[in-house]
Write a structure and sequence with these properties.
alpha+beta, Protein Transport Mog1p, Chain A, seven-stranded antiparallel β-sheet, 10 strands, about 25% helix
C-alpha cells in the first residue's frame, strides 16, 4: 500500500514538475490582432530589440550548450489571410526559397505544434548550420531562428529545444 501511494505521488510530481519550471512570457503585446505567448524554460532569458519596427525577441539560456533563438513577428501583405496549411505547393516552394536564400544547403519539412499550428521547418545542412521555423498567421510572418552560439552544427537536442519552445506557443486572438 505504501509503495502504491509513493508511486502515485511520484507520477503526480512528474506530471506537475515540468509546468512548474516554465515561465509563460508574452512576445507581442497588442502589436497586431493577436498576442503570442511561449513557455520559457527556467534557465532562459528574453531580450527584445526592434529593427525597422519589427520586434526581434532573443532567447538565451544559462547553459552554454543550448542554442540561441530569436523570434520575429512581422506583418506580411503577401500572405494576408493565409496559413502554411493553405499554401499551394508552388507557394510553399517560393516561401522556402525566399526564407532560405542565405543558407548553403537548405531543405524543408512541414510540421505542426502541439497546439495545432502548422509551420515550415527549414534546416541548413552545412558547416554554418542553422534552422528557421516559419508560421503564417492572420497576415503575420512568425519566424523562430535557431543556431549554435559557436556556429557549429545543430544537434538533435538543439532542435528539440527550439521545437519545444514552438510547441508551447499560444496565439491569443483579440475580438
Amino acid at each position: 500500500m505504501k509503495r502504491g501511494i509513493a508511486l502515485l505521488l511520484c507520477l503526480a510530481l512528474c506530471v506537475v514538475a515540468p509546468s512548474a519550471l516554465a515561465n509563460t512570457v508574452t512576445l507581442t503585446e497588442h502589436a497586431s490582432t493577436f498576442d503570442v505567448t511561449v513557455d520559457l524554460p527556467e534557465d532562459g532569458s528574453v531580450t527584445v530589440e526592434n529593427y525597422n519596427g519589427v520586434p526581434y525577441t532573443f532567447i538565451a539560456f544559462d547553459d552554454p550548450e543550448k542554442p540561441m533563438l530569436y523570434i520575429s513577428i512581422a506583418p506580411t501583405e503577401e500572405y494576408d489571410g493565409s496559413h502554411i496549411s493553405t499554401l499551394t505547393q508552388e507557394e510553399l516552394e517560393m516561401l522556402f526559397l525566399t526564407v532560405s536564400a542565405d543558407m548553403d544547403a537548405p531543405s524543408y519539412s512541414l510540421a505542426q505544434t502541439a497546439a495545432g499550428y502548422d509551420y515550415m521547418m527549414i534546416e541548413d545542412e552545412s558547416e554554418t548550420d542553422s534552422a528557421i521555423l516559419v508560421m503564417i498567421e492572420d497576415g503575420f510572418f512568425i519566424q523562430l531562428s535557431v543556431w549554435d552560439v559557436q556556429y557549429s552544427v545543430l544537434t538533435e537536442t538543439d532542435m528539440q529545444t527550439a521545437t519545444a519552445l514552438l510547441d508551447s506557443m499560444v496565439i491569443i486572438r483579440f475580438e
